[in-house]
Amino acid sequence: MHIIESAVLGQLLEAIAARGYALIGPTLREGAIVCDTIRSVDDLPRGYGDVQSPARYELRRVDDGTYFSYVVGPVSWKKFLFPPRMTLFSATRTGKTMSVVPGSNGTAPPMLAFIGVRPCELSAIDVQDRVFLQGDYIDPTYKSIRDNCFFLVVNCAVTGGNCFCASMGTGPAAKAGYDIVLTEIVDGDHHFFAAEAGSDRGKEVLDAVPHASAGDVEKEQAAGVTARAASSLTKQMDVEGLPQILKENFDHPAWDDVARRCLLCANCTMVCPTCFCSTVEDTTDLGGTRADRLRRWDSCFTQDFAKVAGGNVRPSARARYRQWLTHKLSNWVDQFGTMGCVGCGRCITWCPAGIDITVEAGMIRGHNTQE
Fold first, then answer.
1. Domain boundary, last residue among 206, 231, 256
2. 143 & 261 share domain
3. CA atoms within 13 Å, Cβ hemisphere of 71
4. Are residues 14 and 62 in the same domain?
5. Three-class DSSP labels, 260-287
6. What integer is the mean pLDDT of 207-224?
7. Where on the phi/psi map is residue 181: left (φ > 0), alpha (ψ -120 to 50), or beta?
8. Which string of b and e fits 174-209 if b means at least 16 CB within 10 Å?
9. 220 and 281 part of one domain
10. Are residues 225 and 251 in the same domain?
11. Number of domains observed in the structure of the chain
């Protein structure tokens, strides 16, 4: 473990950018902390945190000068690895001939450095890796972007009112899969980061900036940061035996209760860092000389998602919410060997009806986990 002074954080980002990576990190936009292109350390949301509860998100000011005192916002890294909208191919007709060009058009995939990734979000990327990179069918676009990513992870020093990462085993400390992991520490007037490299390229970047070896005191301080974050979690989900419980409660009355509150808006699936449903649409110009085939995000909450030749297999809100929750917490395990939830709490924060996945799962189990 190494120590990096807070004043050196900018140099760390510069060292990453100098290796050809475009920096994608947390920044303030439209009243929220979102993941977007950043140019330097000045674009980070220093001095800002957030307050979250069901159907509520607010920015707050913090006065300790920290860079990473927020939890997670409405934009996850999924946006960059699995773009919301992309062209699969374009076809152009000239006279009696037609040419077809792939969406990438032979361009090299971008080199992206994800700055400030939270441990639960790193776990979400691992879940999406299982979806897009394992099995017989590998998504070439996802793979090309994923193979060129650098991950600067930040362990959580604070938790939000909707976080339940400890229940899912995904935080608040990162275990593996990062290039560099930082733990932000404020000890009186001393503001610094405990840093560890998880890859050769991470070590190369750390070696390029001023740092010192961490002593026992600094190691204890770093461990204390994540331990306090874990102890501050107020929300939990009991996952013991949950996949089978959901399978055995297809007709539980709780599905009717949540259906009366669900607006079918699909907010939960749009902000979720692991949901991967998509659809394909074709567009043509008015002259009939050009056609584009697009892939865009879709949701199991939309009416057309479950429409087949014989009708709609999930026509009701009850059926659609049940599909979402049982797939994420049960059938996902059968498909990919892990649950599709990492406990980030985004679906709770951005649900306009304040529906809480931990409460709904607890109701199916037979008790309310928040009582």
1. 231
2. no
3. 27
4. yes
5. HHCCCCCHHHHHCCCCCCEEEEEEECCC
6. 94
7. beta
8. beebbbbbbbbbbeeeebbbbbbbbeeebeebbeeb
9. no
10. no
11. 2
**In this structure, is residue 237 part of a structural domain?**
no
CA 111 to chain CA centroid, Å, is 19
> What is the pTM (predicted TM-score) of this model?
0.92
Residue 370 is predicted with a pLDDT of: 45
Residue 103: its pLDDT value, please? Answer: 83
Residue 105 has pLDDT above 80, yes or no: no
Cβ of 137: how many Cβ atoms within 10 Å? Answer: 8
Residue 85: the pLDDT is: 94
Number of neighbours of residue 34 by Cβ within 10 angstroms: 17
pLDDT digits (tens, 9 = 90+) for 158-205: 999 999 999 999 999 999 999 999 999 999 999 999 999 999 999 999
Residue 159 lies inside a defined structural domain of this protein: yes
Average pLDDT over residues 102-108: 76
CB 341 within 8 A of CB 235: no
The amino acid at residue 267 is: N
223 and 255 share a domain? no
Q: Residue 367: its pLDDT value, please?
A: 60
pLDDT of residue 371: 41
For residue 241, report the phi and psi dihedrals to the nearest 5 degrees. 70, 10
Choose the final residue of a domain: 192, 211, 231. Answer: 231
- Cα–Cα distance measured from residue 366 to residue 317, given in angstroms and rounded to the nearest whole number: 21
pLDDT confidence of residue 319:
95
101 and 147 share one domain:
yes
Kindly report, residue by residue over 33-80, the tens digit of the pLDDT.
999 999 999 999 999 999 999 999 999 999 989 999 999 999 999 999
Residue 371 lies in a domain: no
329/358 same-domain check: yes
**For helices 200-207 and 9-17, angle between their N-to-C axes, nearest 10 degrees:** 130
Question: Order of strands, edge to edge, in the sheet holding 97-102?
Answer: 97-102, 85-94, 290-297, 278-284
Q: Could you tell me if 330 and 258 lie in one domain?
A: yes
- Structural domain for 275, as ranges: 242-365
